[in-house]
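TASK: fixed-backbone design
INPUT:
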């Protein structure tokens, strides 16, 4: 992973203020208002970002909180128009940062993977990025849509496989998710969960051969994908008339905590120390808690996931690169040595994506690049 870039919209959703707007809107439904306050307080989020400034308005004149305002709720078509307006500029910002971080020129990019599950339009985000970034018109475009929160790591794993099979490949991954445009003030608990911790953001990375690295970078191992049996109904996202209707089972964290250790067992060194990196997609505070307990992780292992959840919320597929960037920045500050670990992300299915990673400081990145060049000439 040669470079990383992240971006968020300009508008900040303070958790306590957003909870107050929602409880104001639900005031006539006392139980729902009380439940909303509890969810917002305990979900581990302090701030999020949104592309929709109307969400910052008081509930009395806010269309997204129509119980109190009486105004027409935004339709799915209106929310898709908001997505089309905001997604590309945010994605471009993240992509430009990643390319600059990697020192990669547009003409060098051979593959473009675009990732999103919160909106769609055609011609799609991939075509906008090709033109606005100045990529080759013949760049290989691979859109990944509606794979949920695990899709960002899925794209990273696919990119690693592309580079492994094509010596000159340089892959640009761009994920953008505008989760807040689907916010609803329904008194249903499922809607309240979704309203409490999802945020908007974009992230991007450049993936190439080790010989292209100058460091510090993450070396990527072989990706692993899996579906957990008998869990298809635990996470559902369907298109409704007023945005996407999300159902999150209260059993998700428990299921992940129970089943992920078994999936990871073949990848872990038997009787060895725990790896130093655990880049866990912060799909919710309960998921981080469950994995910390099940895997015997410390607060130091999970601090980056918790920090991203606290400051940005769950940005679906874009979130994992925020976690990796936080890890990289901290390791640079701490002058960390070569460190191994795992990236984990979860999505509908229930699905789990796992990618082994190794942090290489600048000298380590140069060394591994030299080794790769020597091997290619042998």
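OUTPUT:
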């Amino acid at each position: 992973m040669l470079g990383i870039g992240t971006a968020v919209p300009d508008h900040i959703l303070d958790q306590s203020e957003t909870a107050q707007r929602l409880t104001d809107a639900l005031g006539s439904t006392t139980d729902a208002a009380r439940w909303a306050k509890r969810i917002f307080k305990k979900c581990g989020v302090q701030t999020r970002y949104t592309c929709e400034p109307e969400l910052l308005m008081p509930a009395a004149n806010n269309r997204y909180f129509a119980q109190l305002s009486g105004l027409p709720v935004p339709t799915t078509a209106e929310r898709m128009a908001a997505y089309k307006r905001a997604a590309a500029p945010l994605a471009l910002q993240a992509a430009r940062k990643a390319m600059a971080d990697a020192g990669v020129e547009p003409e060098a990019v051979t593959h473009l993977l675009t990732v999103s599950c919160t909106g769609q339009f055609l011609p799609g985000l991939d075509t906008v990025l090709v033109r606005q970034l100045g990529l080759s018109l013949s760049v290989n475009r691979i859109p990944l849509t509606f794979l949920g929160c695990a899709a960002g790591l899925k794209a990273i794993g696919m990119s690693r496989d592309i580079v492994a099979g094509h010596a000159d490949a340089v892959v640009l991954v761009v994920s953008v998710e505008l989760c807040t445009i689907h916010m609803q003030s329904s008194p249903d608990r499922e809607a309240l969960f979704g309203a409490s911790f999802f945020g908007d953001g974009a992230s991007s990375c450049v993936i190439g051969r080790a010989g292209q690295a100058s460091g510090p970078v993450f070396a990527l191992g072989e990706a692993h994908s899996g579906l957990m049996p008998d869990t298809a109904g635990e996470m559902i996202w369907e298109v409704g008339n007023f945005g996407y209707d999300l159902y999150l089972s209260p059993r998700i964290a428990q299921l992940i905590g129970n089943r992920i250790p078994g999936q990871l067992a073949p990848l872990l060194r038997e009787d060895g120390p725990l790896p130093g990196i655990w880049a866990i997609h912060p799909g919710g505070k309960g998921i981080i808690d469950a994995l910390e307990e099940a895997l015997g992780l410390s607060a130091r292992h999970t601090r980056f996931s918790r920090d991203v959840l606290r400051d940005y919320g769950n940005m679906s597929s874009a979130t994992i690169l925020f976690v990796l960037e936080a890890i990289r920045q901290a390791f640079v500050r701490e002058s960390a040595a070569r460190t191994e670990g795992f990236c984990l992300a979860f999505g509908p299915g229930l699905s789990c994506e796992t990618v082994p990673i190794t942090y290489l400081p600048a000298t380590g990145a140069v060394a591994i690049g030299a080794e790769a060049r020597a091997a290619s000439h042998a």
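COMMENT: The first helix runs from residue 15 to 25.
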